[in-house]
């Protein structure tokens, strides 16, 4: 059993506080990971607000890089000493989706069987089955994707962000929309996920990449990640602007990274005939939109939602880490600030105010992580 510091929220809307928790040694199929860095994601705040469930207390954090400190019986995916990115889609290989050859939709993803607890024995619910605002965490071995090759110490903060929001945005473009070279892409909403979608569009070879937001600072950031045009929707009708920038036709792909009825409608209307729209922004419970079926039929194309960007970590993480190494994907640009484990609650406020793409908690410096057999 390991006593470590971790960020816990004990009740709905209670502050995120640092507590001592107990982490078991790994059992069969499990891995103990010493966390290097972990990004502060809006999903963690959803847990704090009770928007994901009421299974308090929650152990927050999930966008993480780490090093494997120990493995349980039967683990072959990773070895002690491996540097890894943690993910919440450890596919089972047996469910209907996996059997159909679509493991990125796995309906029965794996988590650790044993529970981490407070020191009084109260079981913790780890965010997305990870709980990485902690010096060490226990996960299913399949939640670890090995980082091949070496990275510089500061780069682990960047690649860890592939664990959730950045991957959701990039995956919405590369996987869900399957953007092709030369296509036009518009992204409505330029927070962390929307900005990642813009980076994904540039990586895919889109020649027209249109960023839409209410905030000029976010639009300026979008240009740094590959937007060729920007539209401030306070000042211009985004549908008309997108059409004007695409020769009057509309974009081949429009991504709604906000997830409200108004932006969904804008994305639907800003598509070209037979264009694709992708919803990656998470709607609030009960959000509705009255669908004009004649327009759905008349426009053709596809309306899709992106579940974590239809991501398969074993396939996508290594490819994107390689693109990062080659200088084609600016993951460093998503790291707005580096903070300590005590600073998660203030980071939530900065995130709500739109002041950061990602705050990243630095927990264990790379040079002090345990060294094992590695690969």
UniProtKB/TrEMBL annotation:
<dbReference type="InterPro" id="IPR002328">
    <property type="entry name" value="ADH_Zn_CS"/>
</dbReference>
<keyword id="KW-0862">Zinc</keyword>
<dbReference type="InterPro" id="IPR020843">
    <property type="entry name" value="ER"/>
</dbReference>
<feature type="transmembrane region" description="Helical">
    <location>
        <begin position="156"/>
        <end position="179"/>
    </location>
</feature>
<dbReference type="Pfam" id="PF08240">
    <property type="entry name" value="ADH_N"/>
</dbReference>
<comment type="similarity">
    <text>Belongs to the zinc-containing alcohol dehydrogenase family.</text>
</comment>
<feature type="domain" description="Enoyl reductase (ER)">
    <location>
        <begin position="16"/>
        <end position="361"/>
    </location>
</feature>
<dbReference type="Pfam" id="PF00107">
    <property type="entry name" value="ADH_zinc_N"/>
</dbReference>
<keyword id="KW-0472">Membrane</keyword>
<dbReference type="InterPro" id="IPR036291">
    <property type="entry name" value="NAD(P)-bd_dom_sf"/>
</dbReference>
<keyword id="KW-0560">Oxidoreductase</keyword>
<dbReference type="InterPro" id="IPR013149">
    <property type="entry name" value="ADH-like_C"/>
</dbReference>
<dbReference type="InterPro" id="IPR013154">
    <property type="entry name" value="ADH-like_N"/>
</dbReference>
<dbReference type="GO" id="GO:0016491">
    <property type="term" value="F:oxidoreductase activity"/>
</dbReference>
<dbReference type="GO" id="GO:0008270">
    <property type="term" value="F:zinc ion binding"/>
</dbReference>
<keyword id="KW-0479">Metal-binding</keyword>
<feature type="transmembrane region" description="Helical">
    <location>
        <begin position="185"/>
        <end position="214"/>
    </location>
</feature>
<keyword id="KW-1133">Transmembrane helix</keyword>
<dbReference type="InterPro" id="IPR017816">
    <property type="entry name" value="MycoS_dep_FDH"/>
</dbReference>
<dbReference type="InterPro" id="IPR011032">
    <property type="entry name" value="GroES-like_sf"/>
</dbReference>
<keyword id="KW-0812">Transmembrane</keyword>
<protein>
    <submittedName>
        <fullName>Oxidoreductase</fullName>
    </submittedName>
</protein>
């Amino acid at each position: 059993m390991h006593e470590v510091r971790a960020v816990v929220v004990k009740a709905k809307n209670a502050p995120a506080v640092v507590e001592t928790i107990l982490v078991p040694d790994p059992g069969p199929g499990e891995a103990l990971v010493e966390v290097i860095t972990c990004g502060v994601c809006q999903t963690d705040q959803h847990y704090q607000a009770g928007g994901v469930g009421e299974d308090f207390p929650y152990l927050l954090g999930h966008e993480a890089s780490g090093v494997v400190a120990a493995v349980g019986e039967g683990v072959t995916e990773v070895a002690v000493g491996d540097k890894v990115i943690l993910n919440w889609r450890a596919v089972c290989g047996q469910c209907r989706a996996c059997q159909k050859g679509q493991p990125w939709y796995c309906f029965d993803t794996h988590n650790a069987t044993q529970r981490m607890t407070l020191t009084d024995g109260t079981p913790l619910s780890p965010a997305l089955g990870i709980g990485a605002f902690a010096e060490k965490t226990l996960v299913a071995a399949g939640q670890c994707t090995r980082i091949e090759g070496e990275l510089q110490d500061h780069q682990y903060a960047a690649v860890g962000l592939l664990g959730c929001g950045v991957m959701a945005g990039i995956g919405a473009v590369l996987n869900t929309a399957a953007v092709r070279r030369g296509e036009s892409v518009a992204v409505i909403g330029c927070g962390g996920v929307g900005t990642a979608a813009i980076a994904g569009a540039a990586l895919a070879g889109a020649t027209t990449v249109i960023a839409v937001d209410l905030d000029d600072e976010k639009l300026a950031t979008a240009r740094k990640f590959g937007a060729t045009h920007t539209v401030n929707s306070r000042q211009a009708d985004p549908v008309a602007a997108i059409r004007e920038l695409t020769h009057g036709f509309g974009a081949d792909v429009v991504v709604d990274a906000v997830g409200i009825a108004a932006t969904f409608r804008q994305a639907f209307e800003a598509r070209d005939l037979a264009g694709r729209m992708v919803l990656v922004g998470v709607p609030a419970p009960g959000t509705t939109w009255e669908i004009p079926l004649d327009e759905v039929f008349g426009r053709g194309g596809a309306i899709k939602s992106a579940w974590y960007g239809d991501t398969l970590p074993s396939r996508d993480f290594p490819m994107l880490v390689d693109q990062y190494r080659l200088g084609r994907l600016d993951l460093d640009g998503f790291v707005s600030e580096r903070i300590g484990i005590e600073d998660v609650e203030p980071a939530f406020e900065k995130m709500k105010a739109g002041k950061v793409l990602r705050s990243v908690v630095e927990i264990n410096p790379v040079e002090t992580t345990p060294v094992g057999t590695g690969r």
